[in-house]
User: Fold this.
Amino acid sequence: MEPERYNFKTVEEKWQNYWDKNKSFKAEVIKNKTKFYCLEMFPYPSGKIHMGHVRNYTIGDVLARYKSLQGYNVLHPMGWDSFGMPAENAARQNNLSPKEWTEKNISTMKKQLKQLGLSIDWDREISTCSSDYYKHQQQFFLELYDKGLVYRKEKYVNWDPVDQTVLANEQVIDGKGWRSGALVERKKLNQWFFNISKFSDELLEGLDGLNEWPKKVKVMQKNWIGKSFGCEIDFKIEGNKKVENIKCFTTRPDTLFGFSFLAVSIDHPISRLYEENKDFIEFRNKCSKTGTTEESIAQAEKIGFKTNLIAINPLNENQKVPVFFANFVLMDYGFGAVFGCPAHDQRDLDFALKYDLKVIPVVKPSNKENDFNVTKDAYAGPGIIFNSQFLDGLKAPEQSIMETIKIIEERKIGKKKISFRLKDWGISRQRYWGCPIPIAYNKNNEILKVPLENLPIKLPENIDLNTKGNPLDHQEDWKKITINGEKCLLETDTLDTFVDSSWYFLRFCSPISEKNAFNVDDVNYWMPVDQYIGGVEHAILHLLYSRFFTRALNYKVNNISSNEPFKGLFTQGMVCHETYKDKNNKWVSPDEIVSEDGKNYFIKKNPSEKVIVGPSESMSKSKKNTIDPEQMIKNYGADAVRLFILSDSPPEKDVQWSEQGMIASYKFVQKFWMLHKKIITKIKECKNNKSENFDEYIEEFTNQVLNKVNVSINKFSYNVIIANLHEIYNFFVKITETKTTYNNLEDNYIKILTVMLPITPHLANECLSELLNNKSYSWPKIKEEYLKKKEQNIVIQINGKKRGLILAENDISEKDVIEKIKGSHELNKFIINKNIIKSIFIKNKLINLIVK
Assistant:
């Protein structure tokens, strides 16, 4: 007779309907219960979920289900980071409304996520493009404005020429826009900024308390904040009476005697002297083709414009060098001026060689003589100061920096100073589909706050997106607003979408609060987020901005109990797949190819055309190496997909997609279902026979598996849990094959199924429903007595050399171990006819007999 198959489609539909109606996975705040706030990455509604979503949300779901079964009050919400350029671009290309496009995508992705069987509390669902959400964001903006944490300033910014919008420094990757990939340019605009730099020290120090964050993420944030210890120095200037001195900041004042040029930003105040100089204007325009970030500048060719000014070394007035405008100097760093020491900085050396400037080494490795020279490679290592008069002989940098600063302060030509790399966050974006900024301007262009009673300022609908620049600039009626009887015009820039995602975790605590963004009591109960799960790509952007935002909201009021939004952080790896190209070097998707042997691939529509197989890379639509999760769920079921995505490698590592692995997971689900039917039969047999046989081995196995899973979940070793499921399967196969009946089989099998619930919720729930008739169940408690092994392998050493092992009962005495050695033919030969002078005994582990 054909064994019963597992009809996953019917089962998953049944349990999805149950979870939609049941409150067991929805956070009902019971304040005397321990809370657990689990949060995965905030998704952008792009239209379809991808395998990265599947992995991220499955990892979080395992943890949320586990904590819920343990009796925690679990908050596991979901929302949509739904403003942004992709929606606006898609709407423009397809002549659609961004709102309709976004809401349609949300509906699609929500349906797909539900198919995975996630324990999401959909009652708390939020969307950042909803006015119910962004009206509170507008309130926050005004609150931060009153606190002095928001300001407007004309400034050179990073301009994305493709997306036609400003980018924050953190959104420029390798000199290119983070979304468009276009080379970023400089552009001077009036922009709104968050004063994030005010919290530089606090954000840096706060990293020390984040003990549950990966070290690599903390290092990334530490480097981005970039605390530098050094001093500011005044350089006297010759060549123009209008310029007496130029101030600069340096972390290496001890290399001043290697000084061969002074470089300033094209935005430095002395640039006013050259406003009529055609060559300088041409140079400045050339510099504008580069962005304003250190990364953009690092990628660009180093170029300079030599002025008629001369800088004098403050430690040696006989040393005079030229002053250049240089494209690698930022006005935002220090004072917009740096002194060049080519021998000990590669950027300075490249510049000096290009413009034929002196290269004077002043730090030599400890093992080098005074003839140490630098040619093509700058020396940036430690050593001894030389060529530096009264600084000669000092150890660099540990002695030389402090001694030089001391001298500079004594001569009153500078002072010790701390500087930060972190710059204020530019939040203005020149686009339609974003949160309107609640600011207006009167006829004198003075700033007025939009009154709270006028919030939310909603976006206009049915507008023409195919206009030049920001579509809101052309909305004449929408821009008009009257404030205190004065006719004004609304700000047309919208907020950076990273503002939307810098506080959503607070809104989840009180998603239906109308007057305020959140209830303080709710936030102080749920926050901080106990476990945040997301990609390492958010280490700087989202995570740093969120840390700033909680501090900014708390600034001067201190009503939120925690300044840190995320207590625990786990960064999952990517999902990878082989890449394929056709003969024309164009990307080919996996569903366009065919293979008979799994080694050679051909185009499905043209079987004679061979496909070039490339390396396995992170799944990407541009490289067409993606797998459709919805199709996988349709073909194999959600539990099989969950099982596979957790099984291949530790969650923090990349996972390699494998169709064979997916099939293997599907087969395991089917096999376990058929085994379950046999176990049900076995349990009935035990009951009918009124078995009195209490099996210690079953108890021991169950409790040891339970302990292993507890440890693995808390360590995110989910792939180890999948291995445990295979152990479970093999164990119960043996149980069903024996003729013995047990009175503790059902109880232990229910515990095992409960252990499986976080991994394969549909299968485990279906199995449990047959045994418990939909009664409630909770995470089983471990019986500690079954974790101790009853027998141990004792290492036997004779005169320090290992001679064998003895299997002995737990806690066996030293005397009894020696008796077992004497009773062993293999071991007794090493001590027979010899005297045991001494024995070294470690209980349950080792004995070393010293014999003569």
Summary: The two ends are 70 Å apart (CA to CA).
